[in-house]
Amino acid sequence: MREKQISLVEKEIKGSYNLFDDIRLAYKLLITESKKERIKHMLRVYAPEELYKDKPDLSIQSIKKSKLGKPYSKEVNELINKVHDQIFQKERLCALIKTYTPNLARLLPAEIIAQLLIKAGSLRQLAFLTSSKLQVLGAEKALNLAKQKETNTPKHGYLYAHPKVQNSPEPGKQAKKIANQASISARIDYFRPNEELSTSPEGLSL
Amino acid sequence: MNAPYFLQKNNYIETISIDSLQYYGERVKGKNRNWNPYKSKLGAGIVKGLKQLSLTESSKILYLGSATGTTISHLSDILRQGSIYAVDISRDMMIKCMKLVYLRDNITPFLLDASKTNFTEQFDMLFQDISCKEQVGILIHNSAFVKREGSILLSLKTQSIDSSRPPKEIMKEQKILLEKEFSVIELINLEPYEKHHWLFHLKKRL
Ligand SMILES: C[S@@+](CC[C@H](N)C(=O)[O-])C[C@H]1O[C@@H](n2cnc3c(N)ncnc32)[C@H](O)[C@@H]1O
């Protein structure tokens, strides 16, 4: 009875990986400096059991054996070989974002979209945010401080990295404009009639 | 509490494990594992004087919101002949918890939403620590699986219900809801171990 339940949970975990996990991983690989941490990020998706050990080992065998990781597929080979290749990771992130959120991808750089998605928790949650919330996503600290002191709220969070915002004489207004457009694009992407991509399990806090 | 594998000296609590495993960075001396009240809400409750807990070596516990398994690891020490059903909705939390599941054979994992549970067994104790708005509703739903004289423990996180109103006000509101279904035996404020948390010890109305 207990064994059956454990293997059921293992199966559920294995089956729950989706594109969003790939995006999160690609983004994490891109921003982490230390090589050791990058390996850990890889393992977190492909062979989480290895992290229980003192000396986690990233290899094709451990991925094939893993009961809790994302199922093995051919692309893993290339991914393992290029874990530390920043250019490859960046291209991969762009490609993933383009398939996951094609409309947002036209508007914002892939890194910003990845940041927004990760902060919101899922595409669904991002699509349901108000555009004013989206505008200040990533500036929670300043926002909470402003709320407590009743001073001016921040004008931009992650969107500040957008070239248009940076080059604008009025970055706040530009950020608002972009946030409005991004909010609409996120909704289009989420409600796009492509079932496999647009529905992520509800309530699953990733 | 009538449990030989549980020791208490004033504010210091310990459980005796079978394998002297260090699970979440707690202090371990031989087989005695320090139960850190700052990391576990049940631990905090016990330190703050939770008394009439009917926990024995062979109890069956339903634990909702197991997360990474901090509290469960101690319950697993205490229940040598009993068993724990650990329910959590988050895949990433469950992956971390599986480490414990593989090590201890009295824990059974369930990856599901606590408001959609359905068990055929009857439990001696129910512990709920879920950070969501519907905390009381979920407790009432799950109390159906508890024996008539079983203990029901709820760690109420007022911040998940409404973070803009005073915590005490929310607690009183929720208490009225709870009193419709249960009789409140003990009510413990978990300060200074956890902010804005209360531990309710409830019994079913006979
Ligand atoms: C604060 S943590 C519990 C910590 C744990 N009690 C301990 O002391 O180690 C709350 C957990 O509740 C889970 N949770 C939230 N909503 C849930 C739901 N509807 N059903 C099941 N679990 C849920 C979250 O995934 C999270 O891991």
Task: Please give the structural blueprint.
The complex is a heterodimer of chains A (206) and B (206).
Chain A lengths: L1 H14 L3 H13 L3 H12 L13 H6 L9 H7 L4 H15 L1 H6 L2 H11 L2 H5 L3 H6 L3 H10 L13 H5 L3 H21 L3 H4 L8
Helix pairs in contact in A: 2-3, 2-6, 2-8, 6-8
Chain B lengths: L5 E4 L2 E5 L11 E2 L2 E3 L6 H7 L12 E5 L5 H9 L4 E6 L2 H13 L3 E5 L11 E6 L6 H8 L3 E12 H4 L5 H15 E8 L7 E8 L2
Parallel strand pairs in B: 5-6, 5-8, 6-7, 8-9
Antiparallel strand pairs in B: 1-2, 2-4, 3-4, 9-11, 10-11
Provide structural commentary:
The complex is a heterodimer of chains A (206) and B (206). Chain A has 206 residues and is mostly helical. Chain A has two domains: 100 residues, no CATH class; 106 residues, Nop domain (Serum Albumin, Chain A, Domain 1, Orthogonal Bundle), CATH 1.10.246.90. The radius of gyration of chain A is 19 Å and the shape is elongated. By secondary structure, chain B is α/β, with parallel strands linked by helices. Chain B has one domain: Rossmann fold. Chain B is 27% helix and 31% strand. Chain B contains six helices and eleven strands. Chain B has a seven-stranded mixed beta sheet with strand order 7-6-5-8-9-11-10, with helices on both faces. In chain B, strands 1-2-4-3 form a four-stranded antiparallel beta sheet, covered by helices on one side. In chain B, β1 and β2 form a beta hairpin. The two termini of chain B are 23 Å apart. At the A-B interface, α1 of A face α3 and β7 of B. Bound molecules: S-adenosylmethionine. S-adenosylmethionine binds next to α2 and β6 of chain B.
What is the compact description of this entry?
Chain A has helices spanning 2-15, 19-31, 35-46, 60-65, 75-81, 86-100, 102-107, 110-120, 123-127, 131-136, 140-149, 163-167, 171-191, 195-198. By secondary structure, chain A is an all-alpha fold. In chain B, strand 8, helix 4 and strand 9 form a beta-alpha-beta unit.
